[in-house]
Amino acid sequence: MTTNIGKKEQVRIMFDNIAHKYDFLNHFLSAGIDRGWRSKMVKMVAKNKPTAVLDVATGTADLAIALAKYTSSPIVGIDISNGMLDIGREKIKYRGRSQQIMLQQADSEDLPFEEGRFDVVMVAFGVRNFETLDKGLSEMQRVLRSGGMVAILEFSRPRTFPIKQLYQFYFKFMLPFLGRLISRDKSAYTYLPDSVGQFPDGHDFLNHLHQAGFDKTSERRLSFGIATIYTGHKMMPGQ
After folding, report:
1. Can you give the residue range of the structural domain that contains 115?
2. Residue 97 maps to which CATH number?
3. Given strand 101-105, what is the order of strands in its sheet?
4. What is the tens place of the pLDDT at every residue in 121-158?
5. Does 138 reside within a domain?
């Protein structure tokens, strides 16, 4: 990725450029496993019987659409990339969910919503793209109601042999090559392994959640640790 502009603008341009191939690449490069990861998270969210949901970094709205199968509650999805949102709107319309899911362009680190509006905030594969991680987490905490749930699905790093070694080879060599070949964007799938490598996964990320005002934090590692679901709840007053 270029370095003469901020990370936020780089991310927006990159996702605008690959929006038309994003869904195909997600499913192809993960051999379809990403669908199962999202399914596990939305089932965890649905158990909380949410009444107002925010999907941060919604992209093409895969996560919002998946959750809509389990709840009739309104879902708002925000993303910095209009290109991704345009694809998401087409998918929502095709599935007849336009009355339930509303998408809008917004900055994940400066959410245009009042304090305590939502009882669930969720995000899939988006927090590692925040320019300032702690600011983004604090914004999610701000718009949650007291006791509300945050659910975050993100790539993580396997720790056991031989999964760790196979994962590193695929992420560093195969994934960037295939991603560039199909998307025709030189930076997108080179950026992915770099961003995962720099992201504070596991207990390090749980510490960031706690510092942002969440308690009852937990992690659920998936597929030998290739991805992780993190959850937490907004601390009640006086905690």
Report:
1. 31-160+201-234
2. 3.40.50.150
3. 101-105, 75-79, 53-56, 118-124, 144-155, 227-234, 214-222
4. 999 999 999 999 999 999 999 999 999 999 999 999 89
5. yes
